[in-house]
Design brief:
single chain; 294 residues; alpha+beta; two-stranded antiparallel ribbon; 7 strands
Amino acid sequence: VNGYDHKEQKFLEGIAEYLAPIVHERMMTDVALRAMRESERRYRGLFEQAPDAIVVIDAKTGEFVKFNNRAHENLGYTREELAGLQISDIERRESPEDIRRHMDKIVATGADTFEGTHRRKNGEIREVWVSSTPCVFAGRSCLQSTWRDVTDVRRAQRLAEEHRREMVRMEKLSALGALIASVAHEIFEPIHSVLSHTKPLREMVEGALPILDEYHRTCGDFALGRMDYAEARERIPVMLSSISDGAARVKRIAERLREHVRDTSAAMTSTVQLNDVVRSALTFLHHLIEKATI
């Protein structure tokens, strides 16, 4: 029918049967190669267009085997310059020995995520979050690492923490100010009462002393409280002066306390008289100064 005799047809069928798996395998190989090339193309695109730096580092030498544009751009190097460096040339948090041990650990355990500090070509230090996994590249044991610059994030976090601490400090100062104001008020009222009665009491005692002196002259010594009148006569003026001076000092301290908590914000921006500051300090430290100079 086809111009071939029976033997020729058998021969051709045998050749077809022999070539069929070879052709099929070749076709499958071509499909696999195309799929592999497409996969490599997609991977290369993802590798180069990734928002983070991606590097492949030799796990034994620490040399940069492969990296995307983001890696050398973030560090301020050209591609050729970074290719001639090792990870120890840019990592500032770990020493070369620490880096060696860390890479060995990642190879042994399979993966690690951590934070490091990288030094750019211009000397600037940047904080990075690192995710690293072992891999084989061109027959070499390597680590593929992703570097994400978190410098601005960490700086913002530190500023937020400093602000939080400042707010806590201000809250404590505010609570302390309220306590001081309350104490000053509680002190001021009774001390004012003591001072207002000290002068009339002094006048009454001074009016009574001539009468007591005359009685002492006429009848001799007598008991006044727990001591003889002769001794009490010498101590009464000193005691009255001590009461008056002590109460006046406590009043001054209470007034200073009340002034201190009235407006702390205004005090930070207004003109300060150094003499007033010194006098205020001496008021608070008067007792300690007296004890230290005796």
